Amino acid sequence: MHSVIEKTVLAGSISMLKVEAPMVVREAKPGQFVVVRLDEFSERIPLTICDMDKDKGTITMIIQEAGRSTKDLCSLNPGDSIMDVLGPLGNPSQIKKFGTVVMIGGGVGSAELLTVVRALKEAGNRVITILGARNRDLIILEETFRGLADEVIVTTDDGSYGDKGLVTDALANLFKRGEKIDRIICCGPLPMMRAVTETSRPKAIPITVSLNAILLDATGMCGSCRCTVAGKTRFSCVDGPEFDGYQVDFDELLLRNKRFLGEEKKAMDV
């Protein structure tokens, strides 16, 4: 069992949990994730390791209520326990001195960027972070990013906070001001990552996207998270989760990620 040490409600449907997981944090690296199962009746949920404290043996995860299992996880409080925390899983992010790196997070996808921004800064990079969401209430970790990145740009679809518009608008503005960008790293909803990829394509700037494909066993055995990258079948859990955005078949992945919508709705109605 893994005890919940701390809980912070970041928005109405988004919670941050700090959980005891000493065996996980001992080996965890930026960009990796865990699979959690609340109890024996719950489904397995992949969650990014948002932050880690190796001395205290804890990891931090950010969870948005999107179905029954994530709703149950968000209802936990300090002192409660999670039965399984499996990890670290996935390949770590590539950390080296690229130059100027633009990190783009959409909604709770920003959580995955936190450990990566910190590591990239330690490697000597200049980091510009773009945080986007539908509205102000869904912008998370802004102050934390401001303490790490060289520049933080916030966008909201409705203009309730920061710049009105999409993260692609902010990226296009960086191009217009003549910013020399050596790499783009993006995490968020699939349509957003596809849009960022297409905005970047004319500039041919290397872009890494973190694919939030549906995961079940997270070992590559079930094939649920398969995606097509450079015309070949890849598994997000063991080959990813990060891939070259220009080589991802986003249309196929968007269709695959809809296949359990009916079951999710039934679970929420129970």
Report on the architecture of this protein:
It is a single chain. This protein folds into two domains: 2-89, Translation factors (Elongation Factor Tu (Ef-tu), domain 3, Beta Barrel), CATH 2.40.30.10; 100-256, Rossmann fold (3-Layer(aba) Sandwich), CATH 3.40.50.80. It has helices spanning 22-25, 68-74, 110-122, 142-146, 167-176, 190-200, 236-239, 250-256, 261-269; strands at residues 2-11, 14-20, 33-37, 45-48, 51-53, 58-64, 81-82, 84-89, 100-106, 126-133, 151-156, 163-164, 183-187, 207-210, 226-229, 232-235, 242-244. Helix content is 26%, strand content 32%. The chain is built from nine helices and 17 strands. It is globular and about 50 Å long. The mean pLDDT is 91. With 270 residues, the protein is of the alpha/beta class. Helix 5 packs parallel to helix 6 (190-200).
In short:
This protein has 270 residues and is α/β, with parallel strands linked by helices. 26% of the residues lie in helices and 32% in strands.
